[in-house]
Amino acid sequence: MIKVVKFGGSSVANATQFAKVKQIVESDSDRKFIVTSACGKESKEDHKITDLLYLCQAHVRYGVSYDSILSLIKEKYYGIKKDLNLKVDLDREFENMEKLMTRDVSTDYLVSRGEYMTGLLLAEYLNADFVDAKDVISFRFDGEIDMERTKDLLLKHTKPGRKVVIPGFYGALPNGVIKVMTRGGSDITGSVIANVIDADVYENWTDVSGFLVADPKIVDHPLRIPRITYNELREMSYMGANVLHDDAVFPVSSKNIPINVRNTNEPDNPGTMIMNDCSEYDALEAPNFVTGIAGRKNFTIITLIKNHCSTEVGYLRKVLSVFEEFRISVESVPTTVDTTSVIVQSELVSECIYEIVARLREVIHPDDIRIDEHLALIAIVGRAMKHSPGISGRLLSEFGRHEINIRAINQSGDEMCIVVGVDNRDFEKAVRAIYTKFIAEVNEK
Ligand code: ASP
After folding, report:
1. Which residue, 19, 109, 118, 159, is the most exposed by fewest CB within 10 angstroms?
2. What ranges in 183-266 are assigned the alpha helix state H?
3. Alpha-carbon span 157 to 164, nearest angstrom
4. CA distance 30 to 200
5. Which residue has the CA at smallest separation from atom 6 of ligand 1?
6. Nearest 5°: phi and psi at 197?
7. How many other CB atoms are found less than 10 A from the CB of residue 204?
8. pLDDT surpasses 90 at 286
9. Ligand 1 center from residue 48 Cα (angstroms)
10. b/e per residue 112-138 (b: at least 16 CB within 10 A)
11. Burial class (CB in 10 A: 0-12, 13-18, 19+), 75
């Protein structure tokens, strides 16, 4: 078995967290490839090293002194080094970095130093080999990761049987220049490494025990989701449930490698297993009809009323072409015989709604146009809803029972997700009502 384990910023925020990481790594000899983020926040008031590095870069660029920011960064690394009695030559590392801190310093180089230095400390502490991400994670010039080359480089730079620590978040272009991924990119590094070495599992260690059925800010102590499919996860994260970087899914899902989201502060909790297909496990222990509930507020519905529009060939295309002209991404398009509603994020149309309406009048000649704002969308996601008659009926009657007015409904063809639109002010109440009926009451029995 080979496991790739990635530790997020809070898992390596200080010496105490480093010690937890060591325990986790040493408790399972399959945990051979260790990817680390840069030190994150120790407390709410603390700063993420990556944020400080971005700030440093801005100061360097505008010629403003960055000394106080750099000393916060140094304090963090020297503190961990001292607490854990490590020997890494941080003086030399910081000297090298400061030499390059002139006005034209590469932002990517500078901000990658967070993961780089955290990786150096962690490798020594875990008695593992340090492999610099610039030597193994290979970007093409178009910004995509070259998986074949990454695989070759990883084989070249690692010794069989040895544990390695690889900094996340960055790699290098073919000319050796350092390039970073988007924020939270260490998740992608872990996923890419899991792909190229054909890992059995990709463990993503963070500060939550996996995915929760609903947002804990809305529902008190929601249950953990033990297993979720990649498709369900996509729906949930699109609707705002974010634990993993979006781009971390494909490299592992394409090779059927499960992701296990775990909590460094609660290592005995099995967390959430994300798989292409959960049916083997579902046969042993049936999942809830609802795997998860996620949602977002602040959508706008633009409703076009026109007699017989549903029989007019090309009508929908013309409506959508107007949104395309304004480069507005459309969420969904519920239609009836004479009406077509277009749901979009309010912030995307806040500046141009009147222009859009004028253009729709020109292109469509509708009998009327209505705009309704303050809509929240709630996605009720569940692979077990498929082929289960009555679920949407029960779901909708729950809204009625709580006197929540439904303003839009949409169900995907694969029956895995029902999206219900309600007033912003009913959002939390609706999420709690669905959670109580479909999760709390069911699991109490
Ligand atoms: N350190 C980077 C960030 O803060 C990458 C990561 O943590 O995954 O975005």
Report:
1. 159
2. 186-196, 230-238, 249-253
3. 10
4. 10
5. 184
6. -100, 5
7. 28
8. no
9. 9
10. bbbbbbbbbbbbbbbebebbbbbebbb
11. exposed
Whole-angstrom distance, CA of residue 106 vs CA of residue 242:
29
Q: Which residue among 11, 37, 53, 207 has the greatest number of ligand 1 atoms within 8 angstroms of its CB, and so is best to mutate? A: 37
Quote the ligand 1 centre to 185 CA distance (angstroms).
6
pLDDT tens-digit map of 250-260 = 999 999 999 99
pTM (two decimals): 0.88
- Over residues 396-406, the pLDDT tens digits come to 999 999 999 99
Residues paired with 172 in a beta bridge? 138, 178
212: DSSP letter: B
How many angstroms is it from 8 CA to the middle of ligand 1? 8
Ligand 1 geometric centre to CA of 257 (Å)? 23
Q: Give the separation between CA 280 and CA 109, rounded to whole angstroms.
A: 45
Around ligand 1, the residues with Cβ closer than 6 Å are 9, 37-38, 48, 50, 114, 168-169, 183-187
Q: Which residue has a Cα nearest atom 8 of ligand 1? A: 184
Q: What gap in Å lies between CA 247 and CA 174, rounded to an integer?
A: 21
Contact 378, 427 (CB under 8 A): yes
Tokens of 206: 């963070």
Amino acid found at 386: K
